[in-house]
Amino acid sequence: xxxxxxxxxxxxxxxxxxxxxxxxxxxxxxxxxxxxxxxxxxxxxxxxxxxxxxxxxxxxxxxxxxxxxxxxxxxxxxxxxxxxxxxxxxxxxxxxxxxxxxxxxxxxxxxxxxxxxxxxxxxxxxxxxxxxxxxxxxxxxxxxxxxxxxxxxxxxxxxxxxxxxxxxxxxxxxxxxxxxxxxxxxxxxxxxxxxxxxxxxxxxxxxxxxxxxxxxxxxxxxxxxxxxxxxxxxxxxxxxxxxxxxxx
Length: 248
Fold this sequence. Notes:
Shape: elongated
CATH class of the largest domain: Mainly Beta
CATH architecture of the largest domain: Sandwich
Number of domains: 2
């Protein structure tokens, strides 16, 4: 985004988790305002109205059936901020209420709303949004969890010992945040770089090899995760030579 959204949104059935990839974004809600910086997560509980004002930014959105919850302490929380960003003026804007995990065509209603009155709800609400980040230590840092869902950040050190693992209760989606690594699995071998998404089906053994520091977001879901976007490339079949070239 390099603009304002420009409407408020309420989810009827999901919590909405965002991860800031790059740029600056003002998240405006009934529970306060968050100035998002790269590397930060936040969770919007079901039913909380929100709008975004982004400046040359990009972020990921994860919708999960409510309720989800944080499993790690936040580094800060949303605050009452007026004006929420320079040049903001209160006005009548639209608010969209959706169901079915925000799927297009599942709007319940779109109607005008008094923006100032909406944002002033922060003064009567006790709850606040929590801003989270991943840990600096290697390995996974779990951030959010609910029944059948968990999400975290994984940091890998170069030259780490190769250890295979398989998840028996969920599909796994990985989004490469920084660094480059090679994903080795029973479904093939593929190189990953920042911006790549990959799905590892339930029960498939896999490991990662990297020659530089690597970070990726990992999402686990016991619900089916059908692919919608087009495939840009696929893993290559295993060969002894290819595996040997990755080192011990």
